[in-house]
Amino acid sequence: MSDRTGEGERVRDDGFDDFLDAVESGEGYYLECPEGHGSLPPRRVCPHCGATDLEETPLPETGEIETYTEVHVPAPSFADDAPYVTAVTDFGGARLTGIVRDTDAVTVGTEVALDVAETETADERVLVFRVR
Amino acid sequence: MTGVRVAGVGLTHFGKHPERTGRDLFAEASERAFADAGVDRADVEQLNFGNFMGELSEHQGHQGPLMAEAAGLTAPATRYESACASSGVAVREAVKDVRNGEADVMLVGGAERMNNLGTAGTTEALAIAADDLYEVRAGMTFPAAYALMARAYFEQYGGSREDLAEIAVKNHDNALENEFAQFQRAITVEDALEAPTIADPLGLYDACPITDGASAAVLVSDEYAEEHGLDAPVSITGTGQGGDKMALQDRRFLARTPAAERAAEEAYDDAGIGPQDVSVAEVHDCFTIAEVLAVEALDFYAPGEGIGAAARGETTRDGDRPVNLSGGLKAKGHPVGATGTSQVVEMTRLLRGDHPNSDAVPGEIGVAHNAGGTVASTTVHVLEVDR
C-alpha cells in the first residue's frame, strides 16, 4: 500500500511478513503461550496474559467463520476489490481476519482454509479464506 | 478533593464545512464557551484538546499550542489522541487535574476537519484507528468493523435490521430542533431499510455522517465557581476509562464492549451512583449497533436486551431513559476529535435546561459515553445538576 503513504515501496514488516510467507507455503502458524492463548505475530508477549515464552504452533488446516460482512464502500486501497467479504475466523488456537474469496455462500459457521493472495487494487498480499 | 463544575460550553454547527480550518472551528466553539462561562481567558491554566486525523486532513500536527492560540490562551496545551474518544480523554484528564489541585480553570475541547478528504479519503483516515497489520490490510473499514460486531450480535442474541433502523429514526427525531445538528430531518424505518448497503448488515442510515465541527467546555473547581459567583449548576461527578485489545480478532467478545463496561463501572463508583440512578444518556452511536452495545455496557440493559430499546420506546424522547437527545453521532454528526466533549456540552445543556430537548429529561443525573475505534478505548462521565 505504498500509495497510501507516498513513501515509495513498503518496507518489510518483520514477523508479520514472515507469517504471510509461512501461510503462503502452507505452513501457517500462530503464537501460543504456556496458558494456551493464541495470537498472531509480531509479538513479544501474549496479549491475553503477558507471558513472554511464545511458541510457534501450526495452525489447523481449517477454521470456521465467526462473523463476516460484505464491504460496499472500501478504502482507496481496496477500490477495485469491492464488493468483497471480510471475515473474522476461528482457527482453534487463534482468530484471524481476512477476505473470503471464490464463493457467494458465506455464512457463520462456514468451514474455510487459509491462503495468501493479492488485492486487485494494489497488488498487496492479503490473508484470504477459501471455502472448503 | 474539589468538585468540578462545567462553567460554560460551546459548539460549532456540526456538518459539512470543508472550507473551514480546524483552528477556525475551535476558535468559534471556544468563544461560545467563554461567553457562556463568563470566565476570563487569562484565568485558564491549561488546554486539553482532542483531535484524531489532523495530520491526514490538514497536514497539521502539534495542535495543542495552535488551538490555544486560536482560543486566545497563553496557557500550556496538549493534544489528546484516542481515535473517536480523543476529547472524552481530554475531559477526563482535565477533571483529574482540577480535582487534584493542578488547575482551577481548564479549557477542554476538540475539533475535526473531515469533509475536505472526501468519502474515500475519510474512510481511509478513519480506518487507521483499527489495527493496520491484522485489520486494515484485510480490507477492514469502520463500517465493516461495526458490521462484523452487528452480525456477531444478531447471531448470539438475535435482533434485526428493523431494530437498528428504529435507533436511527429516534436519533434523527431528536436532532430536529438541535441547531448544531448536521441532519435536522426526520427519517422512517423504510428509509433506513431501503438505503444503500455500506457493509452488510449496515446501510447508509445505520452510519453517522462525515462531519466537520468543534466543541469546547470551561471546567472550574467548586472554589473558583464560588469565588467568582459563577452560575454553573452542572458538575462532572464521575469519570471512568476502559481499554481493550486493539483488533476485534483478539477480543474475548465480538458482541460486547468490556472497555465501556469497565469505564462505566469506574465512573459510577466515582460518582457514588448506579446505573438505575441515571435518567438520560449521550452515547457513542457511530453506527446504530454501537448504541445497542453502549446501553448494554452502561448496564441499562443486560447483554442481548438493548437491541429493542428504541423500538419499545424506552430510549426515545418520551421514554423512561432517553438516549441521545442531541441526535447522537448518527444525526447530530461525528467530527471525531470533537465528539467526546460535545457529548458533555449537550448533556450540560440538557441538564441545566437550555437545550431544546431539556423538557424530555426525566431527572438530574446523566452520563456521556465516548468510544474510540471498535471500543478499544472508552470514557464514561457522570454529570449531575444542582436543583
UniProtKB/TrEMBL annotation, chain A:
Pfam family, one: OB_ChsH2_C
Coiled coil: none
InterPro entries (UniProt xref): ChsH2_C, NA-bd_OB-fold, Thioester_dehydratase-like
ChsH2 C-terminal OB-fold domain span: 57-115
Name under which the protein is recorded: OB-fold domain-containing protein
Source organism of this protein record: Halorussus gelatinilyticus
Organism lineage string: Archaea, Methanobacteriati, Methanobacteriota, Stenosarchaea group, Halobacteria
From TrEMBL, chain B:
Positions of the Thiolase N-terminal domain: 11-222
Origin superkingdom: Archaea
Residue intervals of the Thiolase C-terminal domain: 240-384
Keyword DNA-binding included in the entry's annotation: no
GO biological process: isoprenoid biosynthetic process
GO molecular function annotations of the record: acyltransferase activity, transferring groups other than amino-acyl groups
Keyword annotations: Isoprene biosynthesis
Segments for region (Disordered): 309-338
Pfam families: Thiolase_C_1, Thiolase_N
UniProt-listed InterPro entries: Thiolase, Thiolase-like, Thiolase_C_2, Thiolase_N
UniProt key word Transcription: no
PANTHER family per the UniProt record, alphabetical: ACETYL-COA C-ACETYLTRANSFERASE (PTHR42870), ACETYL-COA C-ACYLTRANSFERASE (PTHR42870:SF6)
Protein name: 3-ketoacyl-CoA thiolase
Lineage: Archaea, Methanobacteriati, Methanobacteriota, Stenosarchaea group, Halobacteria
